[in-house]
Write a structure and sequence with these properties.
This protein is an alpha/beta fold. It has 2 domains: 32 residues; 117 residues, Response regulator (Rossmann fold, 3-Layer(aba) Sandwich). The chain has 6 helices and 7 strands, in the order H-E-H-E-H-E-E-E-H-E-H-E-H. A 5-stranded parallel beta sheet has the order 2-1-3-6-7, sandwiched between helices. The protein has a two-stranded antiparallel sheet with strand order 4-5. Strand 4 and strand 5 form a beta hairpin.
Length: 157
Amino acid sequence: MNGLYEFYFLFLIIATVMMRMGGLIQLVIKGIKTTIKKIFIVDDNRFFMESLVFLLNRQNDMNVVGTHDRVQGVLEKIEVVKPDVIILDMRLPDGDGITLLKEINSSFDIPVIMLTMYEEHKEQAIKAGAFAYLVKGEGLDRLYQLIRKASKTFVNS
């Protein structure tokens, strides 16, 4: 019976040490700074854009710093908020995403992820300098992955 009590006592000591170590590990993990990716979204579908803002802001390392629903005025907004990544729709009410992509690339060193309903413009967008091309409806995890990858690849100028 003594051996059982010794085992139980030893087990409690080890469990307590492990719990404290776990707490210490958690503190270390929380102490590691996560770089927040600043995201700017250009899309004319208000419902889609607000949903995307909500979903991206739920990620610990992402923050939507601005949105716009048309070509006109977007470059000025991008200049002000200085995002790390831009998510751009292909079709906008006053222009197209490819033309805007070229303007963004000539003015800023910011990766642009094309997120659109149209599969047929992928090659054209990549040739125009898009970091990636995603069709709406693909998994969110893919978008999260691309945002993280894009923000590591580029440096704001």
